[in-house]
Write a structure and sequence with these properties.
Distance between the termini: 31 Å
Order of helices and strands: HHHHHHEEEEEHH
CATH class: Alpha Beta
Number of domains: 1
Largest sheet: 5 strands, antiparallel
Radius of gyration: 17 Å
Strand content: 15-25%
Structural class: alpha+beta
CATH architecture: Roll
């Protein structure tokens, strides 16, 4: 199976997982609305990339961007998986905060690779109950590659709930990783939170 087939297969799997996250959702969000959101998010990301700030300052900026444009509660619950249903409100809040910081550091490191380049939004298309906004990462001295944002308004406002970099789903990758981390801690969410505060 070639890389294009792999990306297509991942996109189809993402669509199925998104329907599980947003069951029975009617598509109310337009392509123009989704594109507007991601244009704003990408503009903020590009500003951070070209800011010349320290690594730590950039990660804080990426965390603010994540909270502003992403459906953080949905992403966190999905990453935690079935244990989210039995977790207390306090545990969920602590996990969500630690998970968001962890993601900001982890993906912030990836975005730091874009210094000297930029992300350019190409357009959007409807996929069942959400919009996929496609973009291209243009890096200095490297071939460009695809970045896609999955956008929904199910949270009550327009937010992205998944990010694909070169066809790899943030949502699916983190769900697998967090599940493995939680298994090692025998389901102890408090221990997982402490580890996430240092991870990334």
């Amino acid at each position: 199976m070639n890389s294009v087939d792999n990306i297509t297969r991942r996109t189809l799997l993402l669509g199925a997982s998104a329907l599980a996250v947003f069951p029975g959702a009617a598509l109310a969000l337009s392509e123009a609305q989704a594109t507007k959101l991601i244009n704003a998010a990408v503009a903020d990301i590009n500003r951070v990339i070209s800011s010349g700030k320290s690594e730590g300052a950039m990660y804080k900026d990426f965390e603010r961007i994540f909270y502003k444009y992403a459906d953080v509660p949905t992403i966190a619950r999905s990453a935690l998986g079935p244990p989210a249903r039995s977790a207390s409100k306090s545990e969920l809040n602590s996990f969500t905060a630690a998970f968001t910081g962890y993601l900001s550091r982890k993906y912030g490191k990836r975005f730091r690779e874009f210094i000297g380049g930029s992300i350019e939004v190409q357009g959007a298309r409807a996929i069942k109950s959400f919009q996929e906004v496609k973009a291209t990462a243009v890096l200095r001295g490297q071939p460009p590659f695809d970045v896609s944002f999955m956008v929904s308004d199910r949270s009550g406002s327009d937010k992205f709930f998944d990010l694909l970099i070169e066809g790899i789903s943030l949502l699916k990758s983190e769900k697998a990783e967090i599940g493995a981390m939680l298994d090692k801690r025998r389901g102890d969410i408090g221990a997982l939170v402490q580890d996430l505060q240092r991870a990334g």
